[in-house]
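The protein record passed on below.

***
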Amino acid sequence: MSHTSPLKRSFVADLHSLIGQRVKLCGFAETIRDQKHMRFIVLRDPTGKVQLTQAKDAARLTVALDALTPESSVVVTGRVTAAPSVKLGGLEIVIEGAEICGLADARLPIAEDSGLDKWIDHRQVSLRYPSQQLVFAVQTTLEEAMRSFWKQHDFREIHSPKLMGTFSESGAEVFAVKYFGTTAFLAQSPQFYKQMAIAGGMEKVFEVGPAFRAEPSFTSRHETEFTSIDMEIGWIDDHYELMEIEERWLSHAITAVALEHGEAIKQLFGVEAVPPTLPFPKLTFEEAREILERLGHPLGTRADLDSEGERILAEHMAETTGHEFLFITDYPARHRAFYHMRREDRPDLTKGFDLLWRGMEITTGAQREHRYDRLIAQAAERGYKLDALSDYLDFFRFGCPPHGGMGVGLGRILMRLFGTASIREVTLLSRTPKRLRP
């Protein structure tokens, strides 16, 4: 008895090498055009689009496809035929068999020009658009490249808890949840546990995971839940060592994206994916303040940069240095987290930094205070209750090495790679103060 193997799935991107052969395709019916004797269907899969043709004298096929609606999911078999007049790649598939797997409602809820809010309302449809398919292909490549850098440099991955018994950054921006008769808090970052890992001798750690901020912000770059990329590194000399590691890590990841997706990003988003030149320029906060003063944007008594100041600085540095990236270092201690190490010569300043990319902050980092007595003093200086921080402070009682690290917003990196106006355009499902659905 002979056994015929089922036809394996092919993809649109491979069809030019399969002309004359019988293939099986799976995808969505993007458009359907009926003529008197022929039906033309554009099928879309993750790799591209192809025209399908069906002669209506094939009664069985005609009946099977008469019910087909745009965006229905289908499986078709047919022969790949060269068709130079066809704009979609100069070929078509002559349908021999078809199955409608999932019939779409005849009236679709959105179109590509419906606007971002409707896109998010109906994400199962908007995710099918080629631009959105590319976003998550790039995200995958980006994270793979980040992980390859970490592996090459002996980092270890951790997965820290997101339910905590105390706040991890600032008590003002924390989500409190009921927890078996007590109150738990959603982690604002893995900061405490990254440092615990360093105290435990792991030396270099990273984590990619969710973070939560109960911040009533309605800007285009803030979300209440987001993906945070975190690193922590032991035995560093200063915060400049951290910046050198981050710029090499980012260059490695962006180069991978440019090589694999640069052409598609330019085609669909009109943006050039260009690997950055190293090293990134650096300004102290005081230097940045002076430049902004000269450029007509005084910060007054502010101890940080506002979004307009970030934009102006970015334009200035792009004009004077040609760089899109800029580190701002040595922020005033009163604006930074209590665990940031202070400068010995200027205890009013921290050994911390932010990284701006085209005028938007994508990273906050610092050398941490690892000396138990100084950490207690800095927490008390802020008015924190030491008993609430007892678990964290205990990490430093038994000889913690000098260390530091950073937190990076994945969505903000993607915003800059694609040149989008909102972080919601590059997030699977956005969470903001006014959005909890779908």
